[in-house]
Amino acid sequence: MQADFAVIGGGVVGLSIAHGLLKQGKTVVCIDGTDSDFRASRGNFGLVWIQSKGIGHAPYAAWTQKAVRRYRGFVDQLKADTGIEVSYQQTGGYEYFVDDAALQARAASFEQLKQDLGGDYPYEVFDRDRIKHEEPAVGPLVCGATFYPEDGHINPLQLLHALAHACVDLGFVHLTGRKVVGATQGDAGFSLTLDNQQTVRAERVVVAAGLGAKVLGPMFGFRGLVMPQRGQVLVTEKLPKLVNRPSLTVRQVNEGAIQIGDSKEDVGYDDSETVPTTASIAARAIKVIPALKSARLVRTWAALRVMSPDGLPIYQKSTQCPGAALVTCHSGISLAAAHSELLSGWLLDQPTAPDLAYFSEDRF
Amino acid sequence: MSQHVCVIGAGPAGMATASTLCEQGFAVTLLDEQPAVGGQIYRNITRVSASTAHVLGADYQAGQTLVDRLNTQPERLRHLCSTVVWGVDPDGTVNWKANGQTCTEQFDALVLATGALERPTPMPGWTLPGVMTAGAAQIHLKNTGKPLCNTVLVGNGPLMYLVASQLAALGAPPRALVDTSTFGDEAAAAHYLRPTATTLGYFVKGLKLKALLRRHGVVHLRGATNLRIEQAGEQLTLHYQHHGKAQHIDSDYMLLHFGVVPNIQLSKALGADHHWSAQNQCFEPTTSETGRLSGLKHVWQVGDGAGILGAEAAAISGEIAALEIASAFKGNSPSISERLRHLQAAKTKFQPIRRFLDHAYAPPQSVLCPSDDTIVCRCEEITAGQIKTAIAEGAQGPNQAKAFTRCGMGSCQGRYCGLTVNQLFAQALGQSPAEVGYYRIRTPIKPITLGELASHDPA
Fold first, then answer.
1. CATH superfamily of this structure's domain B369-436
2. Shortest Cα distance from B93 to chain A (angstroms)?
3. In this structure, how many other beta carbons lie within 10 angstroms of the beta carbon of residue B237?
4. In terms of domains, do A261 and A234 share one?
C-alpha cells in the first residue's frame, strides 16, 4: 500500500485533514482503529464555538475565529458533495451565569481578549431582563449571560458521517480496525507496520490519533503530550422548542432533543458514565432551565476529551522525522473547516499556509 | 446484620434465587417491572382465573410452586413490584424507579434474572400495525384471559406451537402456522437428543401440541420462505413461497416468532464479558458454572439471561447461584456442596433438548440478515440497506453505524436491532459476530426524567 500521505486516525480531526489533502489531489491512506476505541468524535457535544476559547491565548481565539468563519461555506460544500445534512446553525450562543460576580469577571476577561485581538471580538453581556427576553425558559436563578454572535452548533455525528462519505468519494483508502505498531523512515519516505503485519508506505505521515498520540507520537519524534479528560452528556426525548440558542452546557438539536453536558473529570482512561456526575449535570441544567425537570432522559454517554497540558491544540512538524506532523486538539468540531481547508497548505509547506508556531510542542 | 442481596427480575430464576437466599439467611430485595411475580413465562400467575390457567397448561401452573416457596419468606424478602431498574454498577449499587420516586442502594451482591427477549424478526412489513411477536400475543392472553382472533403465526419453534395451541383452546384457532422450519430440519437435529425421561417429556408435549392444532383444523405449512407482509386498509397479507409457489394469506394479526435470546442489557451495561453462541446465534454473558459474571466480583447472572435453557433450568440456575453466594459469604459446607452437585447434574439434563431446539428451529438467514429495504431499527426507522451503506463508508462496527445512521439510538436502546446490525457487519466484513461486537449499553437502561436523575445529585 502506497500513498502521498498516511493519516493515522479516522475521527473528525483525521478525516478533516484527509479531506483537505484529497481535495488538493493528494493520495491518502487513513489508518483507523476499532469500533471500541476511545473515540472523542463520537462523544462530542456539537458546539461550533468561539467564546471562552483562548482567554489569555489570543492566537487560539483568532485561529478558532478563522475556522468558524469558514464553517458555512465548508458545510454547504460538504452537503453538495455528499447529500448529508449536518444541521449547522450559527445562531449565536450563551454561557449562563447564576453568580453576578462570576459574570462580571468573565466580561472583564472577554474585554481584555477583545483588546488583544484588535477589537475583533463581538461579544455582548446580557443582563437578566435581556436573557429572559431572549430565552423565556431560563429560571429565576439565572442573573445573566455572555453572548457571542458567531457561536453555533451542528450535528457532530453527521459531520463525522459526511467527512467519511466525502473521503470515500474522493478515493481515499480507509484501513479500519488497524493499529500502527512500527515506523521507519528511508529515502522513499515512511514505512508503517500495522498490527496485521501489513505495510503502508507514504511520503508523509500525519498523526491525528487523539489519545493515541501518546504512544504514536514518539515513533515520529514527538512528545505526544495528551491526556484524557472525561466529559458526560445527557440527551432527553424530543421536545417542543424550549431554547432558541445553544449555550455552553445546554442545546436543543433541530429534531427537538435537548443535549446537556458540562462535566470535566480527570479519571484516566475510563469512559464510563456515572450516576453522581450525570445527576449533578441534570441538577445544574434544571437550575438554568427549570422546565427540563420533567423531560424524559433517553440516553447518556461519556467520552474522553483529548487535552494538551494547556488545553490548546498542538500542531507540530517533526524535526527528527521530517515529513511527519502531529495534530491534536479537543475542538475537532469547531476547527474542522480550518483543518480541512487550511492545514493541507501547512502540511505541504505552501506559502499561503497559516502560521501555527504558537501551537508548537516546544511551548511545554 | 445479614448480608443483603438484590435480585433483579421475578421470573423462575429470580424467584428461585430469592427463595434460596432467604432460606440461607440473607436479606433479599427482589425488583421486578411487573405488578406481580412470575416473569414472562408465569406472567400474572397469582391473579389469573382458573379457566385461563387450565388453558395455559400444566407447565404454566408449575410456576405456583415457586411463588408458594417465595411466600414463605415474608421477613427476609422485600419484593418491590412495578419497579424499573435504570442503572447498575459493578460495586453492587442499583438504581431503580417506582411510583415516580428513584432510589439508590448498594448491596453485597447482585443477581441478574432478566430473562429472555424474543429474537428480532425483521422482514418486509414487520413494523406494520397488527404485526407483533407471538410472545406479545401470549402476554395479552395471560393478562386478559382473552385470545387475539383472526391471526396467522409466522416463524418457527416451540413457543409458536404453544401459542397457536393456546389460541385454539380458547376458541380462536389461528388461520395458519406458516412455519419456516421443515421436517428435514427436525430430523437432522434429532441426533442431539438422548433418550432420557426429560427428552421424552418434551417429545410427548410437542406431539400433543401438534395433535391439538390438527384437531382444530389449523393449517400448518412447513418450509415457507420469502416472507413479506403487506397492508391494504385494515387487512394484513402475508406473502410467502411454499414448495416453489408464491402464496399469500390474509389476517388481522400477524404473530411472528423466531425463538428467544438472552436479554443482555444489564450485563452489557455492567461491562461484563460476553461471548457469541453459534448454537443460538446470539451473545451470552460469560459466567462461571454457578453464574458469576466473568470479570465482576459481586454479580451473578441466572436463568435464560445467561443462555436459553428454559424455565425449569432457570429455576435450578437461580438456586445454584444462591448457594454459591451463601458459600462465598458464609463459608462452604458439605451439605451445600452436595446440593450444588445435584443441581448442576439436573441443569445439565436440559442441554440436549436445547441443542435439538436450536438446530431444528434455527432462525432463517433472511431474518438474521434481512434484505436491504427491510427496517432494522424500528425506533429510528433505519433499513438494512442504510447499515450496509454505513459499512461502505467505513463504519468499523455497530457503534460507528449508530453514529452514522442513528440506528439503536431510540428508546429501546438497541434491544431490537443489536443482533441484526451485528449480523449485517459480520456478513459484509467477513468477520465473526464476536469480532464485530455489540452496542455499548449505557445508563439509563430505561428512561427516567431529568428531575428523577437530579435527585441523585451528591451536592
1. BFD-like [2Fe-2S]-binding domain (1.10.10.1100)
2. 10
3. 16
4. yes
Q: Give every CB contact of residue B365 below 8 A, 6+ residues apart in sequence.
A: none
Residues A170 and A273 both lie in one domain: no
What's the predicted TM-score (pTM) here? Answer: 0.93
Query: Is A83 domain-assigned?
Result: no
- Predicted local confidence at residue A218, as pLDDT: 97
Domain count, chain A: 3
Cβ-Cβ contacts under 8 Å, A160 against chain B: 403-404
- Judgement on whether residues A285 and A295 belong to the same structural domain of the protein: yes
* Pair A327, A357 in one domain: yes
Q: What is the pLDDT of residues A21-76, one digit of tens each?
A: 999 999 999 999 999 999 999 999 999 999 989 999 999 999 999 999 999 999 99
The amino acid that residue B349 corresponds to is K
Domain spans of chain B, in order of start? 4-117+261-331, 120-258, 369-436
Query: Does the beta carbon of A236 lie under 8 angstroms from any beta carbon of chain B?
Result: yes
* A49 lies in the same domain as A63: yes
Tell me whether domains B4-117+261-331 and B369-436 share a fold: no
What Rg value do the Cα atoms of chain B yield, rounded? Answer: 22
> At B385, phi and psi to the nearest 5?
-60, -40
Record the cell numbers describing residue B209, joined without a space. 401440541
Classify residue A87: in a domain, yes or no. Answer: no
Query: Chain B residues with CB inside 8 Å of A295's CB?
Result: 449-450
Flag if A36 and B95 touch (Cβ within 8 Å): no
Instruction: Mark whether A145 and A271 lie in a shared domain.
Output: no
Interface test with B, best of A35, A165, A273 (most B CBs within 10 A): A35
Provide the number of CB pairs (under 8 Å) joining chain A to chain B.
124
Quote the domain boundaries for residue A119. Answer: 93-149
Dump pLDDT digits (tens) for B104-130: 999 999 999 999 999 999 999 999 999
A302: number of Cβ within 10 Å: 22
Architecture of the structural domain at B120-258: 3-Layer(bba) Sandwich (3.50)
pLDDT tens track for A125-180 = 999 999 999 999 999 999 999 999 999 999 999 999 999 999 999 999 999 999 99
Q: Fold for B4-117+261-331, please state it.
A: FAD/NAD(P)-binding domain (3.50.50)
Strands (E), B9-65: 27-31
Please tell me if residue A255 touches chain B, with a CB cutoff of 8 Å.
no
Q: Are residues A72 and A177 in the same domain?
A: yes
Q: Which residues of B touch A273 (CB under 8 A)?
A: 442-443
CA nearest neighbour of B399 among A239, A33, A221: A33
Share of chain B above pLDDT 70, in %: 100
The three-class DSSP label of residue B324 is helix
Q: What band does B234 get if pLDDT is binned at 50, 70 and 90?
A: confident
Contact A161 B447 (CB under 8 A): no
What confidence tens digit (pLDDT) does each residue in A49-64 have? 999 899 999 999 999 9
Confidence grade of residue B1 (pLDDT, cut at 50, 70, 90): low
Is residue A84 in a domain? no
Nearest Cβ partner for A164 among B394, B397, B456: B394
User: pLDDT category, B203, cuts 50, 70, 90?
Assistant: confident
**B453: chain A residues, CB-CB within 8 Å:** 234, 275, 278-279, 282, 297
Question: Are B26 and B5 contacting, i.e. CB atoms less than 8 angstroms apart?
Answer: yes
Please tell me chain B's helix, strand, coil percentages from 3-state DSSP, rounded to the nearest 5: 40, 25, 40
C-alpha closest to that of A74 among A88, A62, A64: A88
Indicate whether A240 and A333 sit together in one domain. no
Return the C-alpha cell found at B354. 436445547
Instruction: Answer for the pair B94, B105: CB distance below 8 angstroms, yes or no.
Output: yes
